[in-house]
């Protein structure tokens, strides 16, 4: 409701978006200790993130870890007539 006791009206528009991978940015991996929250640097190989977890376990005796994979994307609005809009 509006401040004058009437009904607030609005116009809503819907847009379609698409994700594209960032060129030259490969999937990355990072290890995280679930005991203390310390994180490894992000790396290109899952084995390197796992190795960080093992070294951390050996040095501080923590035993719970997570290895995550992530990738970077750009979001772009899609123009219904001609495809993806250019910035």
Q: What does this 3D model show about the protein?
A:
With 87 residues, this protein is an alpha+beta fold. Helices cover 17% and strands 31% of the residues. The protein has 1 helix and 5 strands. A 3-stranded antiparallel β-sheet has the order 1-4-5, with no helix packed on it. A two-stranded antiparallel sheet has the order 2-3. The longest helix has 15 residues, at 46-60. The mean pLDDT is 87.
Characteristic terms for this protein:
three-stranded antiparallel β-sheet, 17% helix, single chain, two-stranded antiparallel sheet, alpha+beta, 87 residues, elongated
Spatial shape: elongated
Could you list the spans in which at least 5 consecutive residues all have pLDDT below 50? none
How many separate helices? Answer: 1
Number of E strands: 5
Beta-strand share of residues: 25-35%
Strand order of the largest sheet: 1-4-5
Topology:
Blueprint: E1 16-21, E2 28-33, H1 46-60, E3 65-70, E4 73-79, E5 83-84
Antiparallel strand pairs: 1-4, 2-3, 4-5
Structure, briefly:
The protein has one helix at residues 46-60, and strands at 16-21, 28-33, 65-70, 73-79, 83-84. It is α+β, with helices and mostly antiparallel strands and 87 residues long. The mean pLDDT is 87.
């Amino acid at each position: 409701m509006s401040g004058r006791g009437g009904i607030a009206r609005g116009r809503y528009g819907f847009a379609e978006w698409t994700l594209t991978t960032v060129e030259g940015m490969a999937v990355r991996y990072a290890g995280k200790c679930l005991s203390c929250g310390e994180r490894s640097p992000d790396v290109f190989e899952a084995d390197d993130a796992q190795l960080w977890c093992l070294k951390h376990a050996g040095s501080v005796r923590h035993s719970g870890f997570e290895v995550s994979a992530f990738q970077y994307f750009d979001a772009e609005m899609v123009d219904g007539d001609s495809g993806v809009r250019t910035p």
